[in-house]
């Protein structure tokens, strides 16, 4: 029995520990920092953060109308936001990779256009591997020229070396998650409960969770809900 257990990748115990580190004075935990995200990432010590979230601001679906989604006249709040080029997104991912501890996790929010067209070229030059994906069912149909959009996608990436046992400690998170979109007026609001469960799965109480493009700061709320510290910023607060 012990030999069989030694071979399993499942474990409810987390053995991976995040190191202690000193933050520069500009980075104040558990606050809505107004800062450029790339500058924020440059201030973090390398190999220090166990968990990151990143929701890049792009208009892959919005601008590619032949693919089938809403036009700018029906997505005014999203259209008004500053956009990230693919080159900038890649720089963010390189900065996140630098800050994550070995075997740390990045939860990358993705839309249907980039998921279908491919995004792995964004990971060039990093040690990030795709290890899973979660579909977020928002419970309400949106717009679309063909099918009507009701889901978003959370790509789970892990910094090498890839490990599950001793790192991911919750095994009851479904890969299709139903949670209503928060009604906070923010164009890219994300599900707080799902993010809290993911944080709990791959970190310990008191660990630092980061988000360099925090938007509505839903990751901060999720982090505090499960007893973690939060470090993040947005160019607009």
Task: Give average pLDDT, whole number.
Answer: 88
Oligomer: single chain
- SS summary, helix count: 8
Question: What is the share of helical residues?
Answer: 25-40%
Strand order of the largest sheet: 1-8-7-2-3-5-4-6
Task: Supply the helix-strand structural class.
Answer: alpha/beta
Low-confidence stretches: 64-72
What is the string of helix and strand elements? HEHEHHHEHEEEHEHE
| Proportion of residues in β-strands | 15-25%
C-alpha-based Rg, rounded? 18 Å
Shape: globular
Sheet with the most strands, sense and barrel status: 8 strands, mixed
Number of strands: 8
End-to-end Cα distance, whole Å, is 54 Å
Q: What does the secondary structure layout of this molecule look like, with pairings?
A:
Blueprint: H1 2-7, E1 33-34, H2 37-43, E2 49-54, H3 60-63, H4 76-80, H5 86-99, E3 100-110, H6 112-117, E4 128-137, E5 151-159, E6 176-178, H7 192-201, E7 208-211, H8 218-225, E8 229-234
Parallel strand pairs: 1-8, 2-3, 2-7, 4-6, 7-8
Antiparallel strand pairs: 3-5, 4-5
């Amino acid at each position: 029995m012990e030999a069989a257990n030694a071979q399993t990748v499942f474990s409810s115990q987390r053995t991976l520990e995040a190191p202690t580190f000193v933050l520069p004075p500009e980075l104040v935990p558990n606050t809505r920092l107004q800062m450029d995200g790339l500058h924020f990432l440059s201030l973090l010590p390398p190999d220090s953060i166990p968990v990151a979230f990143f929701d890049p601001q792009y208009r892959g679906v919005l601008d590619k109308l032949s693919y089938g989604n809403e036009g700018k006249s029906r997505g005014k709040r999203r259209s008004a936001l500053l956009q990230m080029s693919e080159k900038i997104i890649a720089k963010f991912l390189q900065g996140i990779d630098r800050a994550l501890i070995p075997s740390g996790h990045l939860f990358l929010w993705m839309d249907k256009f980039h998921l279908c067209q491919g995004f792995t070229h964004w990971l060039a030059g990093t040690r990030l591997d795709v290890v899973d994906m979660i579909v977020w069912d928002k419970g309400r149909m949106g717009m679309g020229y063909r099918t009507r959009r009701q889901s978003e996608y959370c790509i789970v990436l892990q910094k090498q070396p890839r490990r599950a046992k001793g790192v991911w400690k919750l095994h009851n998170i479904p890969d299709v998650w139903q949670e209503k979109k928060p009604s906070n007026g923010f164009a890219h609001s994300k599900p707080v409960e799902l993010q809290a469960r993911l944080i709990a799965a791959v970190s310990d109480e008191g660990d630092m969770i980061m988000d360099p493009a925090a938007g509505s700061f839903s990751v901060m709320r999720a982090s505090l809900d499960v007893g973690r510290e939060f470090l993040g910023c947005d160019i607009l607060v």
